[in-house]
Amino acid sequence: xxxxxxxxxxxxxxxxxxxxxxxxxxxxxxxxxxxxxxxxxxxxxxxxxxxxxxxxxxxxxxxxxxxxxxxxxxxxxxxxxxxxxxxxxxxxxxxxxxxxxxxxxxxxxxxxxxxxxxxxxxxxxxxxxxxxxxxxxxxxxxxxxxxxxxxxxxxxxxxxxxxxxxxxxxxxxxxxxxxxxxxxxxxxxxxxxxxxxxxxxxxxxxxxxxxxxxxxxxxxxxxxxxxxxxxxxxxxxxxxxxxxxxxxxxxxxxxxxxxxxxxxxxxxxxxxxxxxxxxxxxxxxxxxxxxxxxxxxxxxxxxxxxxxxxxxxxxxxxxxxxxxxxxxxxxxxxxxxxxxxxxxxxxxxxxxxxxxxxxxxxxxxxxxxxxxxxxxxxxxxxxxxxxxxxxxxxxxxxxxxxxxxxxxxxxxxxxxxxxxxxxxxxxxxxxxxxxxxxxxxxxxxxxxxxxxxxxxxxxxxxxxxxxxxxxxxxxxxxxxxxxxxxxxxxxxxxxxxxxxxxxxxxxxxxxxxxxxxxxxxxxxxxxxxxxxxxxxxxxxxxxxxxxxxxxxxxxxxxxxxxxxxxxxxxxxxxxxxxxxxxxxxxxxxxxxxxxxxxxxxxxxxxxxxxxxxxxxxxxxxxxxxxxxxx
Length: 630
What we know:
Layout: H1 2-20, E1 36-37, E2 45-46, E3 53-57, H2 59-65, H3 70-74, E4 80-84, E5 92-96, E6 104-108, E7 111-113, E8 131-138, H4 142-145, E9 152-158, E10 165-175, E11 179-190, E12 193-207, E13 235-248, E14 254-268, E15 276-293, E16 296-313, E17 316-337, E18 340-356, E19 362-381, E20 384-397, E21 401-415, E22 418-429, H5 433-437, E23 449-461, E24 465-483, E25 488-508, E26 511-524, E27 541-551, E28 554-563, E29 566-567, E30 575-576, E31 579-591, E32 594-601, E33 609-611, E34 614-615, E35 620-628
Parallel strand pairs: 6-9
Antiparallel strand pairs: 1-2, 3-8, 4-5, 6-7, 8-9, 10-11, 10-35, 11-12, 12-13, 13-14, 14-15, 15-16, 16-17, 17-18, 18-19, 19-20, 20-21, 21-22, 22-23, 23-24, 24-25, 25-26, 26-27, 27-28, 28-31, 29-30, 31-32, 32-35, 33-34
Domain TonB-dependent receptor-like beta-barrel: 231-603
Domain TonB-dependent receptor plug: 50-153
Membrane topology: Multi-pass membrane protein
């Protein structure tokens, strides 16, 4: 009976979504749809002019969502599959448009983040209370950012208040499974610059995060490796974080910026070799921008990302993965004429890893240098504007030599609010240090993965509403996968990915709706027994609907998320069932600057998993109190 209800919810949520999107808005306070973004082109542009499928999640949406983590905020969005291993703070991987979990490039305030050993960004350790907005760019961006951006780029911008004066904020929250949260922030800003600081604390007793077990004959358990009858306990998590930033305009045409983010924490989970970790995530960066005229701008930026995990079995040390990613960039933007912009630059990157392990220690470094050039042009046509974007990049990698990537994108207004865009791009991804060097489980002969993607989009914007359809295809060659015959990773696979995304938002009166639908088809095209199989951990169908209503001091919201069943292994023998969940929230602004909010997630207490053997929490509640000073 329960599975029938899941299928019913999965089928009816898209219908509800489709019925809400065409409603037009006529409210005077409707938010504009042309918000400025920078990630898609490395230069400021607007969402409606971008020649890529982009999505912006701003601070208001983050507050309204009641989400406790970045993975929770992103789940169910078009083209995004989140795989979480046991709730808040546990390992979370993101698959963007059917590509691998290490095929998405993550940036924090322009600084590239991620572990050179695993290739993953620890998105579960970046607190939402320190985030101002998130820009999601779907589709390859190697022609601008180099390696890793096969599926797209997600950039996180930390909090800061742009208005002059003193701005303070604070929040406390408590909820299910012993959840405790507290945060506070302060910005001081004048006409010449400003400084700011935000701090946050999060702690939960957690749930029993793993239901798998250790089978010495089959290695069953998907990484849990629990001896039957042991570790049937809650797996807690705590995180302490801070973000410091400053900017200054010393003279006309000059802008200085510096920022530092650091999160430390402790994570408990289940395992027979490692069952708890101390983690450090740190991003430090700065930039100098010089604008001598309206036609010229130069920017020099640099940063360091630190991803450090010390792992234990009880109190006994097991291993430590300490990694650093240093980066620097020089970019020039030159306005050739009205509507014609030329950008060129140089990127430098150095990855370093030091793995302390009694059985498998190693230390490696690798550098990369990249040159890129981009042209953006627009011209008037009968129906509006026509846009063109050309980008070309060459990377020189210490280990894998030269790689050239490029992209071409075109867009045209068709009249009546319609807009058509088309694009094609190439990308590549270098193997991670673990894939190359981890003793006993690596292959130093691996080649970089390469990809080519094409996309066609059609959008229409009306009075307070917007609809967009994106169809895309990606082919990946030399896809790195674990080869059971060799007992290590190998370039044995190629893959074809096809997808369709439907997104929309609308405002009418006091109502706001945002909807997203996704269809995905992945095909393993490698020779052998897995030919034609689906790539693991990607759901072929997904839907998300966010519905909000404001009425004076009160606001109410619902979020429905549905995903179809997926396979958890390359051979398509381990199935993870589909699910549908409904979240509800209610907030009350009872005094100036004060808001009380209650959230119920997984309202109907549906049991589900996103990864085999790792259950997700059932019904949870949270009560939070937020204060925003003038």
